[in-house]
Protein 1
Amino acid sequence: MPTAECMQDSSPASHTAIWDTEAETLPTPQRQALQLERLQALVARIGQVPFYRSHFLRHDISPARIRTLDDLHRLPFTTKEDLRRHHPFGFLTVPRSDVARIHGSSGTTGTPTFVAYTKKDLTLWADLCARFLVAGGLQPQHTVQVAFGYGLFTGGFGLHYGIERVGAAIIPAAAGNTRRQLTIMRELNPEVLICTPSYALTIADGARELGIDPRSLPIRFGHFGGEPWTEDLRLEIEQQLDIQAFNNYGLSEVIGPGVSGECSERTGMHIQDDHFLVECLDSETLEPVPEGEPGELVITSLTREAMPLLRYRTRDIARLYRDPCPCGRTSLRMSRVTGRSDDMLIIRGVNLFPSQIEEALLRVEGTTAHYLIEVDRPGTPGRSMDELTVKVEIHREMFSDRMDRMQALRERIGSEIHAIAGIRARVELVEPRSLERFVGKAKRVIDRRNLNDGPKAP
Ligand code: DLL
């Protein structure tokens, strides 16, 4: 079992421990050799899945024809639609009796799909979570409050067993009941919080409502993931809770959390690329984008036993970095996810990601990170224009009887949105706590257009 070399100083910023030194610092040539060996073994194994077998037969693919990592491009893509078509277990590569656990994707878009794990998959998953948790400062002496949902969602159980693997104490608080979260936090003094970034803000809000200064809470750092968030939101969480906030990424189809996560350098998330081959492709041409450019992440899970996937189209947009990280880990890194290609709104012909609105709002003093984007298309089909409304909560002290002040604030927000996203929006200032709060993934867009009669997101 890998062991983290822990430092005396437990501040995450100065933390340099590595959970699995051999795997995480493997020099590039050995890493690539390992990836190739694992890819060949995967192609040999995965040919039993009917979906892949028919493609392999048509394109004359066999393990012997995978000679270099570039041959990955010969392999077929797998989409969410394919998983749905072969629901629930058409992609299983082990007998049902070997399945040790089943989780489900959150169904961000459409019906959820199931994901199966063998015992070995569960051990691997715990180890991969341990890698990013340790990279972001977790040590065995810490206590961690997990405020992710425990259930079909992979967040709760995935992180839970990762923390257990590191040897830290777990408070499985699960998502929701913010008052109780705060009581637990004040009684048990956890140093670490794990949840979605939006729930971290909800916890800070909840504390203020109870007259507690969120900065006085015992939390010193947090691992947040499960939904897109901006760098400005990171700063907001860090300031409000007086903590360090680390990003981690994953998706259930591939394993859950544990695909990648930040180290103390926080210059991108280290991809566990001895287990996941990640490509960054243009969503339309499906060709690789130039190094460092944004594109859709496409992931091959090399070592999953129960349900490995070839070239899974995540729809998540991010950049890849290959330059060395000062932390000593040698993996590929990815930027934060700026949106999903299927979350992209096209409004009056302009592409808009919700994260751009978040970025704009957090640049204007007096606004909060609680917002809702509404898109309408009033009028008759074919003769109507899209309308974009952004509702944003502002701090109580910003509310004023003076119409001119409120109008000036609306205008500042509107021009920031225009500067960042190139689109005009109607801005509505709403009272603190009037918009819905989320305990899991935040839902920030209501699109009321009937998109069958006009431009569509791809
Ligand atoms: O959200 C797995 C996870 C749980 C990751 C907890 C990290 C922490 P799903 O429910 O299948 O799995 O949703 C996966 O969530 O394709 C992204 O669109 C989004 N996502 C996950 N982590 C991040 C992140 C889990 N750090 C989908 N930044 C993914 C941006 C994220 N988006």
Note: The mean pLDDT is 92.
Protein 2
Amino acid sequence: MTPRVFSGIQPTGELTLGTYLGALQRFVRDQTTTRSVFCVVDLHAITVPQDPGQLAQRTLDTAALYLACGIDPATSTLFVQSHVPEHSQLAWLLECTVSFGELSRMTQFKEKSDRQQFVSAGLFTYPALMAADILLYDTDRVPVGDDQRQHLELTRDVAERFNHRHGDTFVVPTADISAVGARVMDLQDPTRKMSKSVDSPQGTVLMLDEPAVIVRKFKRAVTDNDGEVRFDPATKPGVSNLLSILAAATDTTPEALEGQYQQYGPLKADTAEAVVARLAPIQARYREWTADPTALRALLVQGAEQAHAVASATLARAQQSLGLG
Ligand code: TYM
């Protein structure tokens, strides 16, 4: 049977090279051989404060980026999470299936709550909503970056527990984390993940950065002093990050690349060039999509209808399993 794929991206801030290499690039590759469903997860975004106008705009922009990367609405379903109410409805059922202790152990919650003055209950129960996203579509495989690994493990545990308690209801999904590009690090602090929510403008390459800006950021990337190009993330995080990025952007492995460079300068220049080559056509298509918000909105309405058809059947099954309705 054709494997079913689901993944989501938050419409918070501008998307980074990490989101592209760890997620988007892989979504596009797989869509012809899978039944893929992709989502702009705006409900996850409101677990921390958002400006309403900005959130609405970023939701549309994120959808445009999916399309610009090559997600084909004729093959894949693309929609906005809040347009399909079953996500919130199933999330509640799963909040009653997951334990307080399990949610307390989520490292993303610990990190994110440390950065908030007001820690919403939604930030705490975030993984239950994420599990709902995935389970609603009978998902087999979830392509994500390494930072989502723990959430995926919890999703599996919750699905298995629900099935055990209430009878077979959900497909138990597996995380699909690539060997290369699943952990793109900050160029200024390569021991920290490149992230749209951390303030490090020089260390973060944005998908919509001008080519000259991308080149400058790579030129200034932090490396080390021993001058040896070797893939060893523990002792050489900066150089290893560059090798990983170059590998992910040219479809090879860091190990295959390390012997080709004697100096950091050419490695930085080639990495920048490879990234620009991947992002420039996406940026051009992005401008086309954002120039026509009416077409974009119409497409998202259609996507929500397709998603709703599947999601409503799964929700009904879960409700029935629980004796609701
Ligand atoms: P988000 O929006 O933070 O990131 C979207 C995707 O990009 C990946 N990613 C990275 N990969 C490699 N290196 C990086 N530096 C990097 N930064 C981001 C993320 O791993 C992710 O795959 N909770 C999710 C969104 C979500 C979701 C879901 C994902 C909600 N429901 C259901 C999958 C399935 C998140 O905040 O991703």
Note: Residues 91 and 129 are 5 Å apart (CA to CA).
Protein 3
Amino acid sequence: MINPFSYFSKDVAIDLGTASTLVYVRGQGIVIVEPSVVAVNQKTGKILAIGNEAKKMVGRTPVHIVATRPLVKGVISDFEVTEQMLKYFIERVHQKRFFLTPMPRVIIGIPIGVTEVEKKAVQDAAKSAGAREVYLIEQPMAAAIGARLPVQEAGGNFIVDIGGGTAQVAVISLGGLVISKSLRIAGDQLNQDIINFAQEEYKLLIGERTAEEIKIGIGSAFPSKEKKEMPMRGRNIVTGLPEEIMVTDEDIRRALEKSVRQIVQTIKITVEETPPELLADVMTKGIHLTGGGSLLRGLNALIAKETKVPTKVIEDPLTAVARGAGIVLENIDELNEVLAETEELEPPH
Ligand code: ADP
Ligand code: MG
């Protein structure tokens, strides 16, 4: 039956990423892409800004105003902050027009490995933000649906989602995750690797933003014929003065090598653990990479070399989870089996 109020109701799908949060509105598509950042006044504990506004404040405001990320390494670090952030994004798209305007249905993409307590916290947060029904979906599942992989068929779909805080590896078949692994090494760690490299190699103190620019500018996982270099600006730890050093793609590849190897190793182990009847499928369809971290140059080539499975980055990897969760939102009846299972938790006594 068609809900007579559905015209006014804004169902939404949210990708709760460690680096960015995306909001998809039913019938409209993705309407919000903002950093998963909350600015908090540490003296009062008050939340000052969320998303873009919060990110802008960092480093430009007094020191007691700090930016926190609700999801650190894929784990919800602060329930209160997560709740406020979800509430803020849901309320931005859900403007109540009438008293009777029904609250929206919300689907939230969460990292794999989130505990039952964390799942419950996310659901409660969305409910207190006005959601009528809240469903959760694991991010690799949503990404696979966003990539239009046949997740409900009896074949193997191999997906790797490399975000800011986590790299998630999953094999999906018949609407469920057959294997899932989460590694707390992803884009943020690669930035940190570059910061460490600058300090150890050149006594140069660089910021996270500079490190990320270098990673995106000349970072790679696999050598290519095209040589790249870029100035790295920071402060010399010894002299205390600003300094600029030219770094090459080779330098950065070396800096990233250890973390990249750990990500590749996790993928390799997952290939080895894939049941033979699904592996044949994976061999022909290949490994699908998604998430911002998958854009590191040559990563697909390195994974293909190490696993002997063809590997490619899916189209529009930064929005796959939100688009996939959006597809589930629009077709909830046919796709409800792909949603994450949640257990009923005992209420506290
Ligand atoms: P999350 O899902 O955790 O919010 P995203 O999928 O948005 O994360 O990916 C964010 C990560 O991707 C960041 O660490 C960012 O530096 C990295 N990233 C974005 N673009 C590129 C690129 N072109 N090359 C390498 N890393 C990238
Ligand atoms: Mg993500």
Note: Residues 1-6 have pLDDT under 50 and may be disordered.
